[in-house]
Amino acid sequence: MLDRTLSLNPQVALRPEPFGALAYHYGNRKLIFLKHPDVVRVVEALDGQATIAATLTACDIDEPRWPSFASALAALEASEMLHEHDATR
Q1: d(CA 17, CA 1)
Q2: For residues 9 and 28, what is the distance between their CA atoms, to the nearest angstrom?
Q3: Residue 87, in any domain of the structure
Q4: CA distances (Å), 10 to each of 7, 25, 49, 61, 65, in order?
Q5: How high is the pLDDT of residue 88?
Q6: Of 27, 45, 62, 69, which one has the greatest count of Cβ atoms within 10 A?
Q7: Does residue 74 belong to any structural domain of this protein?
Q8: How far apart are CA 24 and CA 86, in angstroms?
Q9: Looking at the domain assignment, is residue 84 inside a domain?
Q10: Mean pLDDT per segment of 10 residues, for the chain of length 89 residues?
């Protein structure tokens, strides 16, 4: 998972909240709570990085926390909030 390239789906809007953010998908109408500011920071930074691991490093996420972020990002991808993209673009 950590070697994959993901980005925020263009049909998804993030709305900042005190607890993190709300993610709303305009296509499938799903609403998801991102319950930690670090998760929001990582999701917002995904598009500018080559891999998820590079994103976590750029966001100063401690490596012991990476598995929980990988799980959260996998869940967001399953909900179509994130999608895989070509890192060479």
Answers
A1: 28
A2: 11
A3: no
A4: 9, 9, 16, 25, 27
A5: 55
A6: 69
A7: yes
A8: 23
A9: no
A10: 94 96 97 96 92 96 97 96 77
